[in-house]
Amino acid sequence: MRVNPEILRFLEQKGAIIPEKGSNLHTVRLRIPGGIISTEQLLGIGRALRTRGLGAVHLTTRQTIEIPHLALEKIPPLLKALGKTGIYLGAEHEEIVNITACPGTDRCRLSNIPTNTLLERLDRLHFGREMPVRVRIAISACPNGCMSERLSEIGVTGLREPIRNEGLCTACGTCANTCREKAITMVNGRLVLDYTRCVQCGMCIDSCPFHIIRGSKPRYLVTVGGRRGRHPVIGRELVRVDSEEKAGKVVDRVVDWIYRYAYSGSTLTDQLDSMNFKGFRDRIIKEFAAVENREP
Ligand code: SF4
Ligand code: SF4
Ligand code: SF4
Questions:
Q1: Residue 296 pLDDT > 50, yes or no?
Q2: Is the CB of 143 inside a 6 Å radius of any atom of ligand 2?
Q3: Which atom of ligand 3 is least distant from the CA of 164?
Q4: Range of the domain at 175
Q5: Ligand 2 test: best mutation among 204, 206, 240, most atoms within 8 Å of CB?
Q6: How many whole angstroms from its chain centre is CA 166?
Q7: What spatial distance separates the first Cα and last Cα of the chain, rounded to whole Å?
Q8: Is the pTM of this model over 0.90?
Q9: Has residue 235 been placed in a domain?
C-alpha cells in the first residue's frame, strides 16, 4: 500500500510513528490511556500482528504499547486492523501524550481515590491536543506515586488526612508503627499527630483498632511543572481540592493556561516563573476553594 508522505511526516512529528536507528523501519506507538486494554483489543492486536508476521510488542513506561520494526507500507493496513478494535495511534511530542494512572480504589489497598473516571475524562477531553510543549498527565491514588506524577508536567495525587477522633487512645502504638514518616508519636500516653511531617498517605487511618483516627474526605493534589529525563524536577504544588470534579476542572484550567502562555523551545518547568505561576496559583486556590493544610 502506498503511503502518503505528508501524512507520514505529520505522524512522525507527533511521535506516533518513530523512525528506528540505522534502518528504514519504524515503530508505531499506540494510545492506551492508563494502560487499560480490553481482552478483545489485546486479541485484536495479537491477531493483527500475527497475520503480518510480527512477533513482539514493547510495553512502554507510559503504559502504552509500541509495535517495532515495521516497514512503511505495512503501517496503514495495520492501523486499519487495529482501528476495528478501538486501538488508535498515540502521541509523544508537543501535545498531551498518553495519560497514565495507577489502579486506584479499583484494586490497590493503599489508594485514597478512584482513578478510572478521572482518567477517562482527561483522556477524552485532552489526549492529543497540540500544545506549545509536551505535556504528560499522570494520576497516582496515593503519595507513593507509582505513576511518578510529580515528575510529570501535570500530576494528580490522591490524599487523605488523618483526624483525631474523640475517644480513649490506649497508646498501643499501632498507628505510630504504621506511619513511615514518623508523624505520630506518643506523648504522655496520648497520640500526637505532627502535620508538618504527615504526607496524607492515609495509612494510619485504618490501623487503629479503636477507630481513634478517622480520615478526611479524599483530596486531590494537583502539581505542575514536573520533569523527568536527564535533569529531573519535582512539580510545584498548585492546589489541593476535595472532589474529583474539582480536580478535573483544575487540570482543564492548567491545560488551557499552558496552551495560552507557554512557548516552544523550552520546557514547561523552565517557563513557570515567566508564566506567572504564583499569580495563576493564587487564582486557582481562590476559585476552587483549596483545602488548606492543617496547622501543627
Ligand atoms: S500510587 Fe498508591 S494507590 Fe496507586 S498503585 Fe501505587 S501504592 Fe497503590
Ligand atoms: S497519613 Fe500517613 S504520613 Fe500522615 S500520619 Fe498517617 S501514616 Fe503518617
Ligand atoms: S490511636 Fe489507636 S492505634 Fe494509635 S495509639 Fe491510640 S489506640 Fe493505638
A1: no
A2: no
A3: 1
A4: 163-198+206-215
A5: 204
A6: 37
A7: 67
A8: yes
A9: yes
**What's the CA-to-centroid distance between 110 and ligand 3, angstroms?**
19
For residue 166, pLDDT over 70 is answered with yes
- Estimate to the nearest angstrom the gap between the alpha carbon of 290 and the chain centroid: 20
**245 phi-psi bin (left φ>0, alpha ψ -120 to 50, beta other):** alpha
pLDDT tens digits for range 25-79? 999 999 999 999 999 999 999 999 999 888 899 999 999 999 999 998 888 899 9
In a domain, 175, yes or no: yes
**Burial label, 93 (beta-carbon count in 10 A; 0-12, 13-18, 19+):** middle
Nearest alpha carbon, ligand 2 atom 8: 179
Q: Please identify, by atom number, the ligand 1 atom nearest to the C-alpha of residue 112.
A: 3
Query: Of 56, 116, 53, 64, nearest to 87 (Cα)?
Result: 64
Same-domain check for residues 153 and 192: no
Grid coordinates given for 45: 492486536
- Judge contact between 213 and 203, C-beta under 8 A: no
Give the Å distance between the CA of 138 and the centre of ligand 1.
12
Cα(172)–Cα(33) distance, rounded to whole angstroms? Answer: 44
Q: Which ligand lies nearest the alpha carbon of 148?
A: 1
The number of the ligand nearest the C-alpha atom of 170 reads 3
164, 213 Cβ separation under 8 angstroms: yes
How many Å lie between the centroid of ligand 3 and the Cα of residue 168?
9
CA of 165 to the centre of ligand 3 (A): 11
CB 12 within 8 A of CB 18: yes
How many folded domains does the chain comprise? Answer: 3
- Which residue of 36, 100, 107, 111 sits with most ligand 1 atoms within 8 Å of its CB, as the best mutation to test the pocket? 111
CATH number of the domain where residue 56 is located = 3.90.480.20
